[in-house]
Design a protein that fits this description.
Strand order of the largest sheet: 1-2-3-4-5-6
Number of domains: 2
Largest sheet: 6 strands, antiparallel
Strand content: 15-25%
Shape: elongated
Distance between the termini: 61 Å
Order of helices and strands: HHHHHEEEEEEHHHHHH
Radius of gyration: 28 Å
Number of strands: 6
Number of helices: 11
Helix content: 55-70%
């Protein structure tokens, strides 16, 4: 297939601006979902802005592995939608340029997306997960109340159930504290106190909870005895490891493993349990998500050409519908794959094959000047818009 370098360079350059815009837009949307959490950490717990930005930066690889393929698809779709609405596709066909000759720059652009997504999934995600684990540990030991939620039973500490009615962020004082301590064998201790403070001892891997003017009710199950003790101050040591996770302690989860570590675990694992299937799915996901850029870009080409009479907003909605369909298939594959209902290989790669199959079918139909009608998708998008954003009557 002969490649026209002038046309290829033109198409490739046209795809860069919408890709950057979509990448920034979807990243901004992710940040908006965390704005309340960010505000709470800065205002109530005094976490500095630099630490918050680091937390956001370390969490970005997880979302970028989805945002980059989506941005690639939207960039290709918007580029061909623009070329179609400006009748540039018709002019190219009239000049003897077939639709297939427009694919090389698309695949080259998608290949860049594959490399970016692959680097994010293979290297960025494990590095980010380990870095955020260390950072959250450092934040937690210096801001001990962050992990506690008022009026919620907290069982994160080993053998201890903790309930706090209210937390005063300014003084870091816990009000109306209730504790059920089952760390001693055959003895259950219930501690009630109107006020308490948490102190961190990171070098020992523990929190120290100091309570004031409360009572302890102890029940010895073995001896069938009970007694109550009043106290002015009482200190309880709480294990940090289960609460926030000590970096480097315990086995890594799947997203913290590198490709070599995933392969080593799969090779040594003798049990086909949930952890094995989760690890196997994570291994396939590190490659299926990057290569989805190719299949989604292939789908975006005929979608953009077929929507030449539609507004650009319709093209954006169309791309979002198909990406949502892709994500739903990927989520379904994850759910069924983690139970071993069918091989994780199928669950992680079938969405790519389905998107690629639809794209190839539409591309061939367009090349033969027999496009498939997709107007019904426009009606669906219009119906969803009307339901989500009902028109308001404006009176002059």
């Amino acid at each position: 297939m002969k490649i026209n370098t002038i046309i290829s360079r033109f198409i490739f350059k046209e795809m860069i601006p919408p890709f950057v815009i979509n990448l920034v837009f979807f990243t901004f949307m992710f940040l908006m979902t965390r704005i309340l959490e960010i505000t709470d950490m800065i205002v109530n717990y005094g976490v500095n802005l630099g630490t918050v930005l680091k937390i956001l930066g370390f969490t970005m690889p997880f979302f970028l592995q989805f945002i980059i393929p989506m941005s690639v698809m939207m960039a290709v779709l918007l580029t061909f939608l623009k070329m179609s609405s400006d009748n540039e596709i018709i002019a190219l066909k009239a000049g003897g340029v077939s639709l297939y000759r427009l694919l090389p720059p698309v695949f080259l652009f998608a290949l860049v997306g594959v490399l970016l997504t692959g680097a994010t999934a293979i290297y960025g995600l494990p590095t980010g997960r380990m870095a955020i684990k260390q950072l959250l540990y450092d934040v937690a030991v210096n801001n001990t109340e962050i992990g506690l939620k008022p009026r919620t039973f907290n069982d994160a500490f080993n053998g201890v159930m903790l309930y706090v009615n209210k937390i005063e962020p300014a003084t870091r004082t816990l009000l109306d504290v209730f504790i059920e301590d089952q760390r001693s064998k055959d003895v259950v201790s219930t501690v009630v106190s109107p006020r308490g403070r948490l102190f961190s001892q990171p070098e020992q891997g523990v929190f120290q909870l100091r309570l004031y003017n409360g009572s302890i009710n102890q029940v010895d199950v073995k001896d069938r005895s009970a007694h109550t003790v009043q106290f002015e101050t009482y200190d309880i040591r709480l294990d940090i490891q289960k609460s926030v996770g000590i970096p480097g302690g315990g086995p890594k989860n799947q997203e913290e493993m590198s490709v070599s570590e995933l392969l080593a675990y799969l090779d040594k694992s003798k049990q086909r349990d949930d952890r094995y299937y989760l690890t196997l799915m994570e291994f396939h996901k590190k490659f299926s998500l990057p290569f989805s850029c190719l299949f989604l870009a292939l789908l975006a080409v005929p979608l953009g050409i077929q929507s030449r009479h539609a507004k650009r907003s319709f093209g954006v909605g169309l791309g979002l519908i198909f990406f949502l369909f892709y994500y739903l298939m990927l989520s379904a594959g994850w759910v069924f794959g983690e139970t071993g209902a069918y091989p994780p290989l199928i669950g992680m790669w079938v969405p790519n094959l389905v998107m690629g199959g639809i794209g190839l079918f539409l591309l061939i139909r367009n090349a033969k000047e027999r496009p498939v009608r997709i107007a019904f998708l426009g009606r669906i998008a219009a119906w969803l818009k009307a339901r989500l954003f009902p028109a308001r009557n404006v009176q002059g």
